[in-house]
Amino acid sequence: MELPLSQLSEKLIGFEREHHLTDNDLAFGSQLSVERIHNIKSGEATPTQEELQLLKKFMNSKAKA
């Protein structure tokens, strides 16, 4: 998931819409804080590789469900 921040934000927002999730759901499922999710989505923070992996793992698990 090596995307520019704007594309990552769009992907996260689209994922939440598609799966009817809130930022809280995304935070809980990925084990990141809600504040961190907000900062990543707004482009205020660049996610670490670990955070990207956690997001990817959660998103893949929901996509298969």
SSE order in H/E notation?
HHHH
- Strand segment count: 0
Return the average pLDDT rounded to an integer: 91
Radius of gyration from the alpha-carbon trace, in angstroms: 10 Å
- What's the CATH topology name? 434 Repressor (Amino-terminal Domain)
Helix content: over 70%
Indicate the CATH class. Answer: Mainly Alpha
The helix/strand class is mainly alpha
Distance between the termini: 20 Å
Q: How many domains in all? A: 1
Largest beta-sheet characterization: none
* Beta-strand fraction estimate: under 5%
Shape: globular
Poorly predicted segments: none
Task: Describe the protein's architecture and organization.
With 65 residues, the protein is an all-alpha fold. It has one domain: 434 Repressor (Amino-terminal Domain). It contains 4 helices and no strands. It has helices at 5-18, 23-30, 34-42, 49-64. α2 (23-30) packs across α3 (34-42). It is globular and about 30 Å long.
